[in-house]
Amino acid sequence: MRRPADGRCADGDWLAVTGLGLRLAGVTRPEALGRRFGAAEPPPPVRHRYDAPGTDLAPVEWRVTAPVEPDLPASVPARGLRALPHESRLALAAAVSAEEQTTRPVRGQAAIPAGRQADGPPPAPPGAGPEATAIASGPAAVLWASSTSGLAEYGTVCVEAATLEPGLCNPTLGPASSFNGPAATVSIRLGLDGPNETVTGGPTAGLSALVEAGRLVADGAAVRALVGGSATVSRWSLAAHSGHLVAAEGAGCLAVRPWRDVEPGVRLGRFHRTGLAAGDLVNQARDLVRGAVVPDGPVPGPLVVSTPDVELVEALAKDHPQPVWHLERVLGDFGAAGGLIAVTCAVAHCLNSPSPTALLVLAVEPCGNAAIMEVSSWGASTLSSGCSADNSHSDGASGPRTSTRAVS
Amino acid sequence: MVVSGVGAVSAAGLGSEALWRAVTERRVLTGPVTRFDLSGYPARSAAEVPSETLAALAALAALVPAAGSLAACYLVAATLEGLRDAGLPARTRRHRLGLFVGTVMATRPGLDRGIGPGRLVVPPDGGWARPDDLLAPVRAAVAVTGPTVLLAPGCAAGNSAIAAGCRAIAAGEVDVAVCAGVSELSLEILAMFTSLRALEPETVRPFDVNRRGTIPGEGAAVLVLEPADRVVARGRLPAAEVLACAAAADAHNPTQPHPEGHGLVTTLRGCLDRAGLTADDVDWICAHGTGTPASDGIEARAVARALPGPRRPVVSSVKGQFGHAEGAAAALEAVIAVRALAEDLVPGNVTLVEPDPDCAGIDLVEPGGRRTPVRAVLSQAFGFGGGVSTVLFGRPSGATTG
Fold first, then answer.
1. What is the number of alpha carbons within 13 Å of residue A9 lying toward its C-beta?
2. Contact assignment for B152 to A212 by CB distance below 8 Å
3. What is the pLDDT of residue B64?
4. B324 has catalytic annotation
5. Complex ipTM, two decimals?
6. Predicted TM-score (pTM) above 0.90
7. How far apart are CA B71 and CA A108, in angstroms?
8. Residue A302 CB neighbour total at 10 angstroms
9. In chain B, which residue's Cα lies nearest the Cα of A191?
10. From the candidates A154, A159, A232, which should be mutated to test the interface with B, based on the most B CB atoms within 10 A?
């Protein structure tokens, strides 16, 4: 994945997208997400009131795309779900949706039951539901991007530490007050025992989660991965929120595995992560996008950008030949999950467009941390599990239907 | 790839030399907390970065956003030391330098400074809700021309950062990977562990039959990683080699390790497989060893199961001396592992009095440590959520036993 000297994206190990799970405001299916980006204007946000009792934080009303209900599939065992933080339930719901597309048997094939290798702990308990099936024998990684996970729980522990006697804080809150709740929940609930990582920070975190997943499956640490991002809105998260953006709640998850040469479907590929000079962000971001376009390659479609910098997006839109979609304007600000949600938007666009289609996804933070990734379809506008935009199996795919079984 | 430089801020003070000296002098650095009012708490100890070190770091405060983050100061100091140790300039844009940082709570401890009688006075700038503020100072002090990745997978964070840096170098994405773990002592953590009844009031005693819990710590540590040929071309000697990294998840419970240590067994075997080594080739296991009753026993059994053989590595935990520094713990232990390889000294279980029969399957190092050739070290870490990450360090190629 060495970066070519001219600054173009590196040719990396491509990832095939086998599942897409969404829990966004008014959007749980790829075709709805595609329509949202094609619309002239985003739906107006609603105003909600948030408070933090026991603190000097005044209640605020904020423009949000929230709340979003997890709407967990019935297949998920209900035991213990209510004790999970809201963001972990959103993450689990998106992950289960992505996993179910991945594990749904393609016609004529049976899904392979999950279960750890010999000498490992037992597989998921009987009756755990469809989420407990897996396509490939071997570890599955979970990588998640979030900057809000655990924040409300952290704040609540602080309030209880101030208002209760020492030792009387709710013991379930503390362990849920760090960033890794969503990744841990997905791993524990789905029995996924591969590498488990959480990336936080700004919107590049979501793209980094995909990059790290690609490397983990490329070097054999995992045979596949669930890569997601999530965000929740609370009085705590709003304390750090930019007033010019709508705060967003929701989750997205992509199931990925190594792409096999010439197989049809949506794939994630070349990327470039870099540190831009904060004082020259517009010019360097523009160069980053230009460098990502492959000479003689497919004409790139819309550019999907995740950044809190509205002026940067407007500057990029002036010379990009295709539409520039600003995630934060259309769907709201997801913090660290922004880059990942932007990629899910690009995947949805590929599913809704004739193949081949190619898009670039760019994430830029005001400090200069930046990442860009290409998303494209090849041979068929379906996921590599055979699922199309409406989540049903496509009958119109050109080329051979891809097996969901692992490469032997 | 190799370790070309190290840096640390710890309860031992400023610098990796102070850290290693505390190891060799067997100093126990946990003690009464001075930063918070813990009157009324049943356990009131921590391993704090000393006040004189905080004073020395005050010059870095100008780089830190308004509400201040001690963790951010620790990270800058450790990073600058690591780059100096590697002989690399901090501000050049002539190489591709990536920043890979592991944390548990990032800037959130800024919030619990407002815990007072009867209510929470929330610091107004909101930096405690912006995890990327943790990295702003280091980005101001160092030209980060490659990716910046902030990992928060739980208490294995430092090893996760090292592994991500290794992957970036192996992929040719960066020339230099600054890999760090960082943590700031937090009243929220103390309140949480108190409610979980997992705090030890006096001394952390990993693997001891009378262990009662852990004590929080803090600090930052950095490994600077580069391809070996790049270091040699500068006329410098690598400090150690990263032989392998492996990660897994217990997929079991949010707060309890898998009873058989599934994830840990997987990563220990994974590291050896990737490096083409056996248990006989490893001399020291730098254990996670938090001193909590359940976790140490599970860890001991997992190590015994994963690394059988006639000459299995000896095991010790430095958390008896430094407490559990959470996001910084694995990175601090990685720096200690690098020094152990260079100095041929296996640190002891300094606070161990009576080994737990439940840990009889492993060879625990005596409190005084062991002067012996050290060729390879496995450094393992895990935490809430079930994530496990292990790194295998070795002597740099060409190095001989001292």
1. 26
2. no
3. 67
4. yes
5. 0.97
6. yes
7. 55
8. 21
9. B251
10. A154
